[in-house]
Amino acid sequence: MTLTPTAQRPRVHRAWFVAAVGFVAILGAAGFRATPGVLINPLQEEFGWSRGAISLAVSVNLVLYGLTAPFAAALMDRFGMRRVVALALLLVAAGSGLTVWMTATWHLLLLWGVFVGLGTGSMALVFAATLAGRWFVRHRGLVTGVLTAAGATGQLIFLPVLAQLAQGPGWRVASLAVAGSALAVVPFVWWLLRDRPEDVGTTALGADQDAPRAPVPTGNAAVRALTVLRSAARTRPFWYLAGGFAICGASTNGLVSTHFIPAAHDHGMAEPTAAGLLAVIGVFDIAGTVMSGWLSDRVDPRLLLVAYYALRGLSLMVLPGLFAATPEPSMLVFIVFYGLDWVATVPPTMALCRSIYGADGAVVFGWVFGAHQVGAALAAVGAGLARDQLGAYDLAWYGAGALCLAAAGMSLAIRHAGNR
After folding, report:
1. Which InterPro entries does the protein's record reference (predicted)?
2. Residue ranges of the alpha helices (H) in 136-270?
3. Which pLDDT does position 348 carry in this prediction?
4. What is the pLDDT of residues 252-306, one digit of tens each?
5. What CATH code is carried by the domain that includes residue 174?
6. pLDDT score of 312
7. Please, which of 140, 247, 317, 323 could form a disulfide with 401 given CB 3.0 to 4.6 Å?
């Protein structure tokens, strides 16, 4: 009698486990990204610091968050994702935890600006781009979208909690909660994250088994990052992508993430309620970003960017009117449309960097992301100063909306950018 061998269940590819660890790591760092909007008013009340001074610390954070990215991408190529991400989480924990002893604005600049800016900038989106590029060929866009959405998920989880802590036990407890969350992720990164498929005897998901292994860079990571920038800066697509992404940062991290809660407070909305609305944006952002990743595998990413920027610009232009009306029901209009493309621009931008710049795509995206954060920094401090001088944020909302429409035009221009 012939025995039929039992059919073996297909094994889950190791890439999915690595992606899961990456998701948790980005989630752990997302807590501090949600902190500034919650803590601006408590810091102003306790220390008497102006919103402009506090926003300056946020701007330093945003600039370093972006400008660290290309060097972090090169460091991940040279020393591995595991080491860079573990160190980044330790910096986030230190920067957040030490704020409980600050007494001067320069302490805020050092801890919020430098420590946390370097830590969060060393992972986040460049980490997502590097991980997806190394471990996935099939489903790469989808995985990019999911990893990008981890930041929104962190906002969804942390914002309401941090707002309650800031109003109850105090802002110091909120800062310590963020530090503890970042520290808790470090063991998972160190024990479970692997740098390349070849390290565990496999290949990227969907890759040809006979595909040659990409060489590991051995030179100076900083020199490589600058060399890639010099080469990319000679091409027109780089400037279209960087310009559009600078406006993306100005209209999200710099403006809404930093100033939505204080602006809502100006219109009589309680801070926990405003934080809850901002967290609901995260719900729609998760859906929009994952869908954007899926679409980036199937649709021209340039056309996706045109649609995303145009819709964002229109939603920002209606926000002042929504603040002036009864906020609870009407604000849902903004929450839905703005939330769906909060970071939906990331997967198509990553896809364009990979398709145009090949093996240097992750480092090029790091520089494009640096432009994103420069735009965010300018918007953060600019909106704070506008509020101090004019007593309202209306000019900031309308200006950001107009810039988003300009970004849609830049994205369309990539179609006519020509050859590199």
Report:
1. MFS (IPR011701), MFS_dom (IPR020846), MFS_trans_sf (IPR036259), Proton-linked_MCT (IPR050327)
2. 140-167, 171-192, 221-232, 236-249, 258-266
3. 92
4. 878 887 788 888 878 777 777 777 777 777 778 778 888 888 888 888 999 999 9
5. 1.20.1250.20
6. 92
7. 317
